[in-house]
Amino acid sequence: MSVKSIEWRNDSVVMLNQLLLPHEVKYETYHNYLDVADAIRRMVIRGAPAIGIAAAMGIALGASQKEASSYSLLAQHIDDICEEMADTRPTAVNLFWAIDRMKRCLKEREGDSIADIQAALIAEAKLILEEDIAINRRIGEWGARLVKDGDTILTHCNAGALATGGYGTATAVMRVAQEQGKKIHVLADETRPYLQGARLTAWELMEDHISVEIITDNMAGHFLKSGQVDLCIVGTDRTAANGDVANKIGTYMVALAAHANDIPFYVAAPTSSIDLSLSTGDEIPIEERSAHEVVHIGSHSIAPANASARHIAFDVTPARYITAIITENGIASPPYPITLGPVARNT
User: Fold this and answer.
1) Strands, DSSP E only, in the chain?
2) Do 86 and 173 sit in the same domain of this protein?
3) Predicted confidence (pLDDT) per residue in 64-88, tens digit
4) What per-residue confidence (pLDDT) applies to 78?
5) N or C: less crowded end of the chain, CB within 10 Å?
6) Could you tell me the residue range of the domain that residue 292 belongs to?
7) CATH number (domain holding residue 53)
8) Which residues are catalytic?
């Protein structure tokens, strides 16, 4: 199966509405960069790499529609677009990586015509998508070395094709392992409150005929303690230079339980999600979303009227609980302050 979470089509951005999965597969077309930004905020598209791609395409879309008489006017308009995109989701570093890359593309073409600059920005956004798919495949090839025939893998949230340009990060490891003929079984945490594991990961793996069972988040410890899990693989929205990882809320609890039971805990991380400017995970900004998303599932209330709630969207797993970090350039093992930088820089 080749799930397309996003693509550039007919001078517009087309995204799969992930809020409707798995009950409805619906692609929606966005003709305005403000609508692209709103889709990122509402989690129509989600997952760090996919957010970065969406931001890049949103910038290209807004730039292509600007009738600017000079480079400076176009650059100011693009700065405004970039500010709008940067304000959507604070934790996923791919968002800011993609914004910076689009700004570099603009700067490098300062002497070109407006039309040529606009075309170059569109080409750059498309290239980011193409590169992401290739990167994910390489992550899968590295990570599959850690998977044995017959393994049961526990994963949290969705780090699949839906969270990327295609193929996924954590799920890339599973896909390549299956392609190599290894029989694997996956336990997918439901991942409250958005249920990305139940709605998205399970759907993707079932489409690929990979054996998967959904478990509630509070079952993970039981399966780890009872010897029914061989390894854990999750994705990441931002990884600090010391190897601390920010991922979907609940990841930290899985890592703790895995560590307590001597189960390997791996993180699949494209180098675009590694933020070497942050020394530790304490510096990673953590998004807090509306409490409404906790006390409702879809439009259905599951709590008393006017009940108070909190929705912390991510947590940080300390590096000491992470067995290795799988990137497209290789596998980094502790001590991460020494190993992660060279891998992230592809040296």
Assistant:
1) 6-9, 12-16, 27-30, 152-155, 185-189, 211-215, 231-234, 238-240, 245-248, 265-268, 274-275, 296-297, 300-301, 314-317, 324-327, 330-332
2) no
3) 999 999 999 999 999 999 999 999 9
4) 97
5) C
6) 139-345
7) 1.20.120.420
8) 237
